[in-house]
Amino acid sequence: MMTAMWNRDAIRGVAILGFALAMPAAARAQTVRIVPLAARDLGYDASRDTLWATVDPVSTTFGSQIVPIDPVTGVVSQGVAMGLQPYALDVADDGRYAYVGHLDSPEIRRVALASRSVDLIFALAPQVQGPVFAQEIEVAPTDAHSVAIVSAYSGISPQSTGIALYDDGVERGTSVDPGANRLEFAQDGSVLFGLVNEVSSFAAVQMSVGPSGLAVLDSLPDRVVGFYRDFHAADDMLVGTDGSVIQQADLRLAGHVAAQPSANAVVSDPATRGLYFVSRGGVEVFDRHRFVPRAWLPISGLLGSPADAVLLGPGRLAFRTTDRQVVIVDLEVGAADQDGDGVLDAFDACVAAPNPDQADRDADGAGDACDAHPNDPRNGFLACDAELGAASAALPALVDAIAQCSARGFPDADGDGEPDASDRCAATPSGLGVDAVG
After folding, report:
1. CB atoms within 10 A of CB 218
2. At CB < 8 A and 24+ separation, what contacts does 169-174 make?
3. Residue 415: left if φ>0, alpha if ψ -120 to 50, beta else—which one?
4. Is the Cβ–Cβ distance between 345 and 332 less than 8 Å?
5. Given phi > 0 = left and psi -120 to 50 = alpha, else beta, which region is 313?
């Protein structure tokens, strides 16, 4: 059960919802902040715990900027002026740079986040049918100076015209055009994955990243099914907003998560081993290794469709909606990890027994490392059933044995229930009228 409390920060215009949500490990508080902001994309600087957003020019206060948002308070501050229509955004893992693309221009602006100033501007090359814009930007996880960019036409479908790597604004070697619109790097940056979501192949694409640029290694159809779906890299998997779980090594389907059909954003949380699927009704939490549900967090007041989820740290995420909202969710899981296995207590299947793999053979919520009956989801009841069953099977023989012993020690020749030793008429058949002494 969930209870909700509303209050409103009148100065900042941030709606704050407090939740108490029953989750498998324990019942604990949640906080959701809805920030009224016409954001077009989001990025997170973990080094400064700052959420960044590109803002549509319709915003009278922050229009055409990239702005910082405090994920704790939801306060939006003045940011850095961009071109008229800032759009795609990604922040380097080390917090050094943010890269911003524009809907109305092929220009990419790089923002040095320490000084909050633009330190580099470069342009995407025009294509056959005219100028392009950056539809998607992904900073390489191992090098803040390198980015992968999907260039796209405006007003033409499908929009994608190709994918290229840029090092400090200089295009690196070979570009490719597999039709992908969304991008994710592997953890070591050696492989780039693309998702085709504007045509019905719905393919996942695997590309090598090298000194000479990009090369397509593989492409398999029907990996993440549905137009304008998204995906997210998690460990050695890719997870689609349709619930598909894809192996990065060979793009084979490894499983499926039963997420809400309207889920349109997903992000992985290594600290909690959680997958957060964001739909129009709220956030679903799944175990990212066993693909089983953990919790459902309804969120009221959402407008439009969710998009562009980013992880803000253990149990914290943010996403935007298509109707001018930025939503910050804090599951308030804390940082405790009693057994030191790398899994926070809030989501640990064994809080006091190290079990980094979170193995749970019988899927009863108790990990094998602390489950006295790891193969019995009823935790011992099946063993009791077996013991009772064996005892029940032996019961008729036991009753018969008791009867035989009774017959040998207390004979009753006429079967009237009175032993012969005390029966005055030991041969009187049962049912025949007798006096008080038999």
Report:
1. 13
2. 169/108, 169/110, 169/120, 169/121, 169/122, 170/122, 171/125, 172/146, 172/211, 172/212, 172/213, 173/210, 173/211, 173/212, 173/213, 173/214, 174/212, 174/213, 174/214, 174/215
3. left
4. no
5. left
d(CA 174, CA 140): 17
At residue 132, the pLDDT reads 93
Cα 41 to its chain centre, rounded Å, is 19
Provide the 3-class DSSP secondary structure of residue 2: strand
Q: How far is CA 315 from CA 74, 207, 335, 406, in A?
A: 16, 31, 9, 70
- Give dist(CA 326, CA 36) in Å, integer: 6
Whether the CB-CB separation of 174 and 216 falls below 8 Å is answered with no
What is the model's pLDDT at position 279?
93
Determine the pLDDT at residue 436.
57
Sheet-wide strand order for 170-171: 133-139, 146-152, 160-167, 170-171
A 10 A CB-CB count for 347 gives 24
CA 400/CA 277 separation, integer angstroms? 63
Whole-angstrom Cα distance, residue 435 to residue 438?
Answer: 6
In 3D space, the residue among 123, 120, 102, 83 whose CA is nearest the CA of residue 40 turns out to be 102
Peptide bond into 158 cis (omega under 30): yes
pLDDT at 129: 81
Dihedral class, residue 341 (left if φ above 0, else alpha if ψ from -120 to 50, else beta)? alpha
Which residues of the chain are modeled with pLDDT < 50? 1-13, 18-29
The one-letter code for the residue type at 208 is S
In angstroms, the CA 65 to CA 122 distance is: 18
Give the type of residue at 165.
L
What's the CA angle centered on 387, arms 385 and 391, to 5 degrees? 110
Task: State residue 431 phi and psi, 5-degree precision.
Answer: 100, -15
**What pLDDT was estimated at residue 178?**
95
pLDDT at 42: 98
Residues for the chain: how many in total? 438
pLDDT, residue 288, reads: 81
pTM of the model: 0.76
What pLDDT, on the 0 to 100 scale, is given for residue 299?
A: 92
